[in-house]
Design a protein that fits this description.
The protein has about 325 residues and is of the alpha/beta class. It has eleven helices and 13 strands.
Length: about 325
Amino acid sequence: MLSNKRILITGGAGFIGSHLVDRFVKEGAEEVIVYDNFCTGNRENLKDAEKSGRVTIIEGDILDYDLLKRSIEGVDLVSHHAAELEVFTGIEDPTHDLRTNIEGTLNVVKACLENDVLKLIYASSGGVYGPAKYLPEDEEHPTIPQWPYGVSKLAGERYCTMASQLYGLPTVSLRYSIVYGPREWYGRVLTLFIKRVSEGLPPVIFGDGLQTRDYVYISDAVDANLIFMKKRKGDGDYFNIGSGVGTSIKELAEIVLKTYESDLRPIYDDPKPGTASKYQKGRRRLIGELRDFVLDIKKASKIGFSPKISVDKGVREEIEWYSTNKKFWDYPPRV
């Protein structure tokens, strides 16, 4: 289905984007174009895909409309994953978050329209919902995001839907839960647990550890992208992409400890929002932290999405990857 297709991925050197590059190459795409400003993307993530000879890398920013438009010329499909992902960054600099995630997304939409792209996949987030009114959160859940990140992601969705309705550009917005796996950037709770336990240190849990999260493994998230890119279904719509299962932070820590066969026990800390842990310097507690975040995936399942990797297996896979790639996390957490 992707053979003879030219596909451009914004943010293609990042965590999810680079896995998409690998899969598109494997699926036989004629050319995969990585468009990335390398602010957080890593060229190392593309080393295997580049061996195919079908990967082109363009160092560019989605705010550079002229370069973006030229880069999309002759492209069949676009996957838009470039974004400001850090919630703390959006809180501290909402203008930067707005420009990257709203203006940047609008640039992508416009460039796709001007180049007659066949389909645009937009990486949105379950963060558009805000605090859960009920669980699991389906697509009809109120969208009242409490962070600038969620606001900007929701705005991006609206531009994609508008482009479908007004101009006929097929778009699909994917509301990811917490995507994890090899190449995940350092700073999110699972990476912090893994790194500490690998160094013989106990994981640090904020609060009581009973907060629930929906973790979806990277290969399942990639599968979702392929399904919606290949099928002419869901155009102009948005879909939750998660596991549909809630895992508490305490359970996540226990999975990491069990995988390492460690006798360590978690340390509980309760710093005020926005302040650092007394046990893990440089790690701050998120402002507006969600108590529960679990997505209902029935809508995407009707299109063919079916996550296959359990949290236990996914964590094992990430730990195995980290055991031979420790340099990836040899820098301060992105918080």
